[in-house]
Amino acid sequence: MKNKVKSLLDLSDSEICEILNKYDADSYRLNQINDWVYSKYVKKWQNMVNLPKDLINKLESSITLHPLKEINCSGLGSDTAQKFLFLTSQNNKIESVLMREGSRTTVCISSQSGCAVDCDFCATALMGFKQNLSTGEIVDQVLQLSNRSSSKITNVVFMGMGEPFLNYKKVVESAKIINEKIGLGARRITISTSGIVSKIYLMADERLPFKLAVSLNAPSDEIRKEIMPITITNPINELLKAAVYYYSKLRRFVTFEYVLLDNVNSDEQCAHHLIKLLKNIPCKVNIIPYNEIDSQYKRPKSKVINNFVRILDDAPFTTTIRWSKGTNIDAGCGQLAIRD
Ligand code: SF4
Q: Could you tell me if 50 and 95 lie in one domain?
């Protein structure tokens, strides 16, 4: 039996053309294959019914179509969130989440299996780092969830497992494929980072059209260091300079994510400090009440959350409160982790 080396999703169009050529197939077959994969989300080579049978058999014996294998799905039948567990080609586990709210259907995807950044409040951090995902493994999450979704995917967020900027090249390649081949608008694709300053500059210099979200989570380095050790090498003042640079280059606001943790970053003083910190920065702020995992951190009481948000109402930037979907199946923001 021949060895299936790569997945189709990790091959460029010219590499696929070379393979078609080797099998004496016309190059227009590439468009047919791309249509089946990126528009019709087929799961099997045999479903590509307008390809000749012998070509399908040759392709099937040499190239894997989907690099990820679904091994579990929780929340089936739920109309708000479903969580999918996949096995990568290196036998590591990752999770992706399908969320619905009104007319939006969002896919939250992973860029790594596990994560090395070690944010103290995050379930993924407990896994340690396992692997960077390939471009195909990232794109496949969107394709497989599109196949399973009853509604069309409207948004993709790189907010699942991993720090996207520590797998920058593959994340950017996959975002371009999601945009160009799957056809999702660039402004509907958000790349989220724990705050790796050098890559924010790079994203601005490369004029990438995708949205950028940065996990700020504290109004001072002192508090941020306690929950995000990455602050030691990427302090808040450097993050803010990068956000200003990003705006100056692209005329797009950075969104700062702020996970509200009880007795850590959620008191009135923190809210006022946050306004002072960001008042001259072109940005938006998303407040995310913490989704509890098995850790020392707790979600603040509703009164504290509402008070924090009310204070921010007076800020010159826009603030939105984001209640995560799928917390009942551990699919909320910061809850993704594989428990072996
Ligand atoms: S919050 Fe993000 S960057 Fe931080 S440990 Fe979790 S997955 Fe990694």
A: no
